[in-house]
Amino acid sequence: MTKTDIRTQTIAELQKSFATMGQPAYRAKQVFDWMWKLGAKGFDDMSNVPAALRQELSDRFTFESIILDVRQNSADGTVKSRYKLHDGYKIETVMIPVPEDRRSTACVSSQVGCSLTCSFCATGQMGRLRNLTAGEIYDQAFDTNKLSQEMLGYPLTNIVYMGMGEPLLNYGPVMESIHKITSPEGMAWSPRRITLSTAGIAKMIRRLGDEKVKFNLALSLHAADDNKRNQIMPINETNSLRSLMEALDYFYKQTGGRISFEYIALKGFNDSIEDADKLVRLCRGQFPVKVNIIEYNPVPGVPFERADESQVDRFARHVRNKDVMITVRRSRGKDIDAACGQLANQK
Ligand code: SF4
To answer: Domain map of the chain by residue range?
Structure first.
């Protein structure tokens, strides 16, 4: 008999299974709380559940959790956690603290590797090995929240789906993980503190709009014309900038959610004033948007260099002067390969 992962069960399904085992409904609730609210990593952690029942559960179900493998601390306070999955695969999660503002962000992964092969990204070089389950995504947020409390003395303030993988290509589990993070069954978070970042899949962005999601959306833009974007992000060949802007407009009209553009500055490729003008034109669409310029972190074997700081500042000033909201983000966690585009399970 193949066993089911108990974490795929709803409370109603669990109560039904417990009834067939002659167990009262409150026991199912106890086990459900251990899985989502109390951070159990397996049946043995469920200390108020009788040992015989824990044994029966492990005979019937698997419990697929993530186990911390290696944790690395950057000189700038960023922490990268590498987790081992039940089948031996590994994923990475990053915590980015900003203690002066009492802020702390978890950057979670949605897939092992990624199929989209963006040319500047280390994760893309791994290929996609498999999708993560909702539980495996949720656990990254849960564990990082605990880490923030232990290390910084306050909980996470934001969760971004910007780690390994393309979240919209693992749609069901990603949405279920957000449901658990925002539900009283789990972490009871406000969805407005969650941002899902996509490389840009127009029909899935429209689907988010149809589902009237309450979280924020970031588009990894990185180039403001199709010709350049095709060169670094193959997904653009089937999802042109025009189709993406129309989809984002639809998303905004349906949800009123916040939209941002992420833009990695690559030296001599997308950092000119002409590029800045193209970016401004894109930002003057129907929906309000904020741009985040991100410093590039070199990846071995990739022919891009970080844009000069002075050029990035000139670019940002030019965009800002045209009344577009723009922030320059100096990269965090570079010394431990935890920065944007560097997650590839390397030590
Ligand atoms: S940048 Fe994002 S979408 Fe592109 S290959 Fe890397 S992880 Fe995948």
So the answer is: 4-62, 67-336
